[in-house]
Amino acid sequence: MTAHRASRTLSLSGIALLLLSLSSPPGLAQAVVYDPSNYAQNALQAVRALEQINNQITALQNQARMLLNQTRNLTSLPHSSLQTIQQSLARTQLLLNQTQRLAFDVDQIDRTFQRLYPNAYSAPTSSQQFAGAAKERWQTSRAAFQDSLRVQAGIVQSLSATRSETGALVSASQAAVGALQAAQAGNQLTALQVKQLADLTAVIAAQARADSLASARSAANEEQARAQLHRFLNNGQGYQAQPVQLFHE
């Protein structure tokens, strides 16, 4: 025990003794025996008890702060972009599903190519059939370019909503009160990036479809021209030159 603490303890003991002597009846005051070591021990125990109480109060305060932080970390983000992202993806998917004449369907593509874009014209084909197939290929290519432009226009129109949602999510992330809100804001920003990648994929797919059909049309037209030329040159005796007299004597 330090000198300061011992003097404080003795002072407390003296004060306690004085109060006890003043409050006791006259007869009992003469019977009180002052034991400095006993009073010092009692005062020391009281001080230790007070320190324990202070430590318990500090521990309870720390637990309250911990529970408050846990509550903040479990608080959900009040803003959600899920519905906006889903609606935008649904609109893009709808535009892809509304492609004209030739859809994004493997079986339909195979059937259409077998009919309109053959490798060779082995079976007899009339001139009317040649002309009809060429016109249908042109219509299919034209429709594909229109579909590509419609997909691009739909995605451009959604850029305003994408920009608005990005700003809202960044603001929510910066104002997050806990780990859960920050994580949810990050997840929604990631979902927004995935949506943008999906839009880019749709544009590439639509444009590639139009380019592929244009190339297929060109190849089919070349094959059709070859078949028609072959038929012209091998029809019966074929073409034979005949002398022509332009002037009469």
| Parts with pLDDT < 50 across at least 5 consecutive residues | 1-10
- Helical run tally: 8
Q: What is the helix fraction of residues, given as a range?
A: over 70%
Mean pLDDT: 82
**How many domains?**
2
What is the H/E string?
HHHHHHHH
Rg for CA atoms: 47 Å
Which structural class should the secondary elements be placed in?
Answer: mainly alpha
What summary fits the major beta sheet? none
Strand content: under 5%
For the record, give the distance between the C-alpha atoms at the N and C termini, rounded to a whole number.
Answer: 153 Å
Shape: rod-shaped
Number of distinct beta strands: 0
Account of the protein in words:
With 249 residues, this protein is mostly helical. It folds into two domains: 3-73; 82-233, no CATH class. The chain has eight helices and no strands. It has helices at 3-23, 26-29, 36-73, 82-97, 106-116, 127-157, 159-174, 179-233. It is rod-shaped and about 160 Å long. The relative contact order is 0.10.
Essential attributes:
disordered N terminus; 249 residues; 2 domains; 77% helix; 0% strand; rod-shaped; mainly alpha
In short:
The chain is 77% helix and 0% strand. It is rod-shaped and about 160 Å long.
Topology of this structure?
Layout (H helix, E strand, L loop, with lengths): L2 H21 L2 H4 L6 H38 L8 H16 L8 H11 L10 H31 L1 H16 L4 H55 L16
